[in-house]
């Protein structure tokens, strides 16, 4: 059995090209860029929430959700789909929690709790469908370095 390490487009140790179309759907913006935009927007939404700046917090939730949905669409692998769905559940949980706080609507916390449990279920589904747990859970890393 080969001990080649895979990245998105090349098996490093073997230098054998991988057909990316097997894993990724075409999209005009690179996955790494979307990941970075998602992380920065999410960070800013949370920071503005912490600072109790309602309008900027809500403004940054929109690109966080949008990029999260695109990331969900791009990767075809079942285990990564479930990880991305768990991350989207986390975003939804944060959004509902933030809205509950800003709008003084405690009922939204029930939705946030539901998103939390949905996220846990997605993590379990990712683990169950994964052929490589290390690769699957590496998608929780944030602020990936963009490659030239």
Q: Which features characterize this protein?
A:
148 residues; mainly alpha; two-stranded antiparallel ribbon; 2 strands; 64% helix; disordered C terminus
What share of residues are in beta strands?
under 5%
Please tally the helical runs, counting DSSP H or I stretches of 4 or more residues: 5
If you compute it from the alpha carbons, what radius of gyration comes out, rounded to the nearest whole angstrom?
17 Å
- Strand-and-helix sequence, N→C? EEHHHHH
- The amount of helix comes to 55-70%
Instruction: Provide the low-confidence segments as ranges.
Output: 8-18, 143-148
Total number of strands: 2
Assign an overall shape. globular
Distance between the termini: 32 Å
Mean pLDDT level: 83
The structural domain count equals: 1
Largest sheet, if any?
Answer: 2 strands, antiparallel
Spatial strand arrangement across the major sheet: 1-2
By helix and strand content, what is the structural category?
mainly alpha
Structure description:
- Strands 1-2 form a two-stranded antiparallel sheet.
- It has helices spanning 31-50, 54-74, 78-103, 108-129, 133-137; strands at residues 10-11, 16-17.
- Helices cover 64% and strands 3% of the residues.
- It has one domain.
- It is mainly α.
Q: How are the elements arranged and paired?
A:
Layout (H helix, E strand, L loop, with lengths): L9 E2 L4 E2 L13 H20 L3 H21 L3 H26 L4 H22 L3 H5 L11
Antiparallel strand pairs: 1-2
Helix pairs in contact: 1-2, 2-3, 3-4
């Amino acid at each position: 059995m080969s001990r080649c390490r895979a990245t998105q487009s090349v098996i490093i140790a073997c230098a054998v090209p991988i057909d990316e179309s097997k894993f990724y759907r075409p999209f005009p913006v690179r996955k790494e860029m979307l990941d970075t935009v998602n992380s920065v927007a999410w960070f800013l939404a949370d920071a503005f929430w912490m600072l109790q700046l309602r309008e900027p917090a809500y403004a940054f939730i929109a690109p966080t959700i949008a990029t999260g949905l695109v990331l969900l669409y791009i990767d075809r692998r079942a285990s990564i789909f479930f990880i991305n769905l768990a991350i989207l559940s986390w975003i939804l949980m944060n959004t509902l929690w933030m809205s509950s706080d800003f709008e003084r609507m405690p009922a939204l916390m029930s939705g946030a709790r539901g998103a939390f449990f949905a996220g846990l279920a997605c993590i379990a589904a990712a683990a169950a469908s994964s052929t490589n747990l290390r690769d699957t859970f590496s998608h929780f890393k944030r602020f990936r370095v963009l490659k030239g």
